[in-house]
Amino acid sequence: MAEEERALLGGDGGDGGSPGPPRALPAACDPRRLPHRLLVLALMCFLGFGSYFCYDNPAALQTQVQRDMKVNTAQFMALYAWYSWPNVVLCFFGGFLIDRVFGIRLGTIIFSIFVCVGQVVFALGALFNTFWLMEVGRFIFGIGGESLAVAQNTYAVSWFKGKELNLVFGLQLSMARIGSTVNMNIMGWIYSRVQDLLGYAGPSTLGLALLIGGVTCLFSLSCALILAYLDRRAEKLLCKEQGKTGEVIKLTDVKDFSLSLWLIFVICVCYYAAIFPFIGLGKVFFIEKFRFSPQEASAINSIVYIISAPMSPVFGLLVDKVGKNIIWVLCAVITTLASHIMLAFTFWNPWIAMCLLGVAYSLLACALWPMVAFVVPEHQLGTAYGFMQSIQNLGLAVIAIAAGMILDTRGYLFLEVFFSACVCLSLIAVVMLYFVNHLTGGDLNWSAKKRAKLQKAAASEKES
Fold it and tell me: If we measure between CA atoms, which residue out of 132, 283, 128, 121 comes closest to residue 202?
């Protein structure tokens, strides 16, 4: 390290003399050069790969989990609820733990270890035919999963703050969706291979398949360790500070939230309640209603994530260039409602509805989440985003259990009507947001050109 420091910063290291000319490090080893930053970017993207891969393990193996563990759909969906419960609280403290307690490097490693341990406990629960142990595993997994995403974003800001940051966030989201897609399409095949090896299906087969899936979490943990080393090295070489989230969580800020912000929260909860629980139950839905094979059902169930991977950065750029965020959110919600109605009441080729759903899901994420920054002062952003993620996780936990109970008692048609009702509530909230924004003279629906013009005028007025 001392040799590298002398090479990068120059200096003879002798008797306080003036430093000599710096000797350049190879591009791949210099934290200021593009090849090294690309290596760090790759590690950041793979940091969350294991977490996103294993999050939807239950969806990829729904039939096998319910059959081997002898559980109904409500109990199966509790596996998703147990992931969400800790994050109702942890969303407020993840940033605090990274900033004040662990630091970004140790925090990332600790959260990665939680993800690994959670997946191992989840797999052991299946291996020992103990469903409550599987639920404990998902709870532990949840403690690490969402906080790891916060750590990932903190690393991104630390290394790429400036013009590259939006692209980096887009690439991280794309890698997350690739992890989910690979899981949907490969876990069923892994289960089949383990079954061929053992000669029978059952809890042991399920447990071993989940342990094999957990290798992705170990891969992500190794990325966290390498990233910690490279970040510490860059801190010493460049004398830069360790990355911080910048979040300031003050629960007393909640009383100052505007009506527009509360409507954004309602849109978020009601919309995502009709996406993630649906994907969690989607594979068996396509097998039973449309007579798809398990492989075809896995493929169509993952199309939302497949579309989201390339389209998220594209839509992010589009919304940045055009503005008019409320109109984009309205288009996304209406398209999602049309998709659920098609799946509920028609036997049209479901690829059409699912492709529309994938496009709408990608568009909504790019248009909805940035709106928080338009209606909240900067010092309240941490609280607002923490609260938004918290109630999103609360909504997902409750809706996951409700969806399982509806499917057990009423069937898929009633479940699709329920999801459509959730999207309708989201639609009502979007329309209300449009009028509230219009009546209060808000800037949520400004064009990008108008926003840039007014920001420029405000900056020049400040200078004068």
Answer: 128
Helix, strand, or coil here: 26?
A: coil
- Which residues, including other chains, have CB under 8 Å from residue 55's CB and lie 6 or more apart? 83, 141, 145, 180, 183
Sorted by sequence, the CB contacts under 8 Å of residue 436 that are 6+ apart come out as 259, 260, 263, 442
Q: Other CB atoms closer than 10 Å to residue 347's CB: what's the count?
A: 9
DSSP letters along 116-128, please?
HHHHHHHHHHHHT
Question: Which residue in this structure is represented by tokens 């419960």?
Answer: 85
- CA–CA gap between residue 161 and residue 334 (Å, rounded): 35
369: three-class secondary structure by DSSP: coil
Backbone angles phi, psi at 5, to 5 degrees: -65, -45
Q: Report the C-alpha gap between 119 and 51 in whole angstroms.
A: 9
Angle at 206 between CA 202 and CA 207, to 5 degrees: 115
Tens-place pLDDT, residues 224-251: 999 999 988 888 877 766 555 555 666 6
- pLDDT higher than 70, residue 157: yes
Instruction: Report the C-alpha gap between 186 and 54 in whole angstroms.
Output: 12
Q: Does residue 71 contact residue 405 with C-beta atoms inside 8 Å?
A: no
> Do residues 55 and 390 lie in contact, with contact meaning Cβ atoms separated by under 8 Å?
no
Q: Phi and psi for 377 in degrees, rounded to 5?
A: -60, 155
Which structure tokens are listed for 407?
């499917």
**Alpha-carbon gap, residue 34 to 18, rounded angstroms:** 29
Contact 181, 216 (CB under 8 A): no
Cβ–Cβ contacts within 10 Å for residue 397, how many?
A: 23
Give the tens place of pLDDT for each residue, 105-130.
998 999 999 999 999 999 999 999 99
Distance CA 118, CA 393 (A): 18
Distance (Å, whole) CA 136 – CA 246: 32
**Rounded-to-integer distance, Cα 343 and Cα 281, Å:** 13
Q: What is the dihedral of CA 47, 52, 58, 63, to 10 degrees?
A: -110
